[in-house]
């Protein structure tokens, strides 16, 4: 395992303590032992950090200054990694440790896999049992396709991308490099497009062919059972670095910018454009044909029914949505409504007595 000084150099952290020490894992601050690294990113847990038996702690300069004297008296041998962003540094260190316990997917093709002769599958790829790879599919180097996954014709998967079991990739879908797609995800299913054709005597919903594709950038993660529909005539697009949670619905022709995060059960209706660096809470939902500005934050369970044009705003509310600051004020009023009602009744009674 790397030493403390090696970790500090690799992750641009300042080191306080013995640089030759090494650690074998990470752990929560309240459970960590002398051979483990913990992290502190919320000042509410400063007391837990003081009491912790962790052999090393990732934290900010301000937190270190606050607890260094008390913590040293309780744990004099602990070392500290001081970072401008302790949470992100913890995540990077965790990635390093995770590599030692991650499953190994050796290069090769399982005997039960079915691969069309026209598909391009480099020798460095891992193709698991009962995988189906269709005509003219192109895989990059070191792609891992685990059991029961299907990749349909004319799709491409970038190098170092991992598809977990039972992922369905439809035709004309293009995933970038280093993507992770979790089990049960469906990429490229038909968008929900039907034209009404009704009269007084009856009618039907006429299916609109969904002939676009899906294009997904590099370093995108897609959660389990998430669905990303193909476009009707142009592509549905997901920008590089975006992270999508489980059971999210992204409809046809949606465009999601780069480095967004979308939490579980969110739903984005067709042709809506989400800007870059947006944060979307769980079960939030968007009407169709909207434009959402860069760096917008949408709280969980919020319904967005109109475009957001000013960057960097935070919206909250089931219906209607509003600026988060306005929602907090209204929520405070709601909590006091009963007292307001009682006060009004008292004033009405006094007025009637006069």
From TrEMBL:
Residue intervals of the Mannose-1-phosphate guanyltransferase C-terminal domain: 112-190
Domain UDP-3-O-[3-hydroxymyristoyl] glucosamine N-acyltransferase non-repeat region: 24-96
Annotated InterPro entries: GMPPB_C, Hexapep, LpxD, Trimer_LpxA-like_sf, UDP_GlcNAc_AcTrfase_non-rep
GO molecular function per UniProt: N-acyltransferase activity; UDP-3-O-[(3R)-3-hydroxyacyl]-glucosamine N-acyltransferase activity
Biochemical pathway: Bacterial outer membrane biogenesis; LPS lipid A biosynthesis
UniProt enzyme class: transferase
Pfam families the record matches: GMPPB_C, Hexapep, LpxD
Catalysed reactions, as listed in the record: a UDP-3-O-[(3R)-3-hydroxyacyl]-alpha-D-glucosamine + a (3R)-hydroxyacyl-[ACP] = a UDP-2-N,3-O-bis[(3R)-3-hydroxyacyl]-alpha-D-glucosamine + holo-[ACP] + H(+)
Gene3D superfamilies for this protein: Hexapeptide repeat proteins, MurE/MurF, N-terminal domain
EC number(s) stated in the UniProt entry for this protein: 2.3.1.191
Active site per UniProt: 252 (proton acceptor)
A GO biological process held by the record: lipid A biosynthetic process
Record's keyword terms, sorted: Acyltransferase, Lipid A biosynthesis, Lipid biosynthesis, Lipid metabolism, Repeat, Transferase
GO cellular component: membrane
Function: Catalyzes the N-acylation of UDP-3-O-acylglucosamine using 3-hydroxyacyl-ACP as the acyl donor. Is involved in the biosynthesis of lipid A, a phosphorylated glycolipid that anchors the lipopolysaccharide to the outer membrane of the cell.
Subunit structure: Homotrimer.
Family designation: Belongs to the transferase hexapeptide repeat family. LpxD subfamily.
Name of this protein: UDP-3-O-acylglucosamine N-acyltransferase
Organism name: Polynucleobacter paneuropaeus
